Amino acid sequence: MAKLLEVRNLKTQFFTQDGVVHAVNGISYEVAQGETVAIVGESGSGKSVGVMSLIRLIPEPPGKIVDGEVWFDGQDLLKLKEEELRRIRGNRIAMIFQDPMTSLNPVLTIGRQITESIELHMRFNRDDARRRAVELLELVGIPGASSRLDDYPHQFSGGMRQRVMIAMGLSCNPQLLIADEPTTALDVTIQAQIVDLVERLKEELGMAIIWITHDLGVVAGMADRVLVMYSGFIVEEAAVDALYAQPRHPYTLGLLRSIPRLDLGRQKRLIPIEGLPPDLLDPPSHCPFAPRCPFSVEKCWAENPPLMEVGAGHRSACWVDISEVKIYDSRTDAEAVA
Asked: What is the pLDDT of residue 267?
């Protein structure tokens, strides 16, 4: 597949009264046309800041993109003028945010919020834009779409508001859709409906997707590749099947061990990740996961490992080979890698 997006050494920091927060620490990855890439990790790992930096939505101050390149269709987005970027943002690259109630304007009708970008980017007149808005609401499964254009966000349920956000994101037929934890605030049934909807629309429209989440259960059924982030770094990158079958970074292993599995017969004991994430005000020179890692060795405390090839299309930032460890193993971790 042809390359659509390439991120090179992206670094984003926040300059606060307490010091410099190192939110994103030199991440690099690619997204191909029509591909779904999931970015996973705990809260505070840099997932959302990383994708918001792509289209320069980081508030300045206190935030600042201090280094890196973001190449999209032959242009470095970080070097474009604001007016040039505005023609891409919301048009060729669209974003769905986590909480639709705070992302939607409560004093504007749903119809106006959808038609605004259509009129701006596609140069439709108001009548044509409203017809396009109705088509989009029907596409995302909102019943009685034409009669709901003049309703306000508070008149929709949480799941319906998220569908409206998806309709807004799709309004200009983007090449890349960024979804920032779009199902987190929804119940499980609505989550499944939203995931199914996005997958169907991806197939129909041929767009690429970056899906940010902390829910590995959602990722398994929809992603082609997975990036695992920790402390502002990408610590593992792999095709989704390879990541679940044989995780190569201890943090990924910990995430997988902490979610329920129904395909193993009698459920094994869930194993939590001990300890707390590092303080981003004081980035370590060693592996950031070392204080929580059951496999750490002396080298882990001396040097932060880069992403290294551990298999075909599989990279991990770890000095220790944990490939023999099973996600649910009756042995202790120490025995498993002995």
From this structure: 56
Q: How far apart are CA 261 and CA 241, in angstroms?
A: 15
Element (H, E) at 40: strand 36-40
N residues, the chain: 338
As a whole number of angstroms, the distance between CA 286 and CA 291 comes to 10
pLDDT digits (tens, 9 = 90+) for 155-179: 988 788 888 888 888 887 888 999 8
Contacts of 112 (CB under 8 A, 6+ apart): none
Side-chain half-sphere CA neighbours of 304 within 13 A? 15
Q: Which residues contact 317 (CB under 8 A, 6 or more apart)?
A: 233, 234, 235, 236, 249, 287, 304, 305, 306, 307, 308
For 6, phi then psi, to 5°, come to: -135, 120
Beta strands (DSSP E) in 56-107 are 63-72, 75-76, 93-96
pLDDT in tens, 10-55: 999 999 998 999 999 999 999 999 899 999 998 888 999 999 999 9
Question: Which among 20, 14, 47, 74 has a CA at the least distance from the CA of 184?
Answer: 47
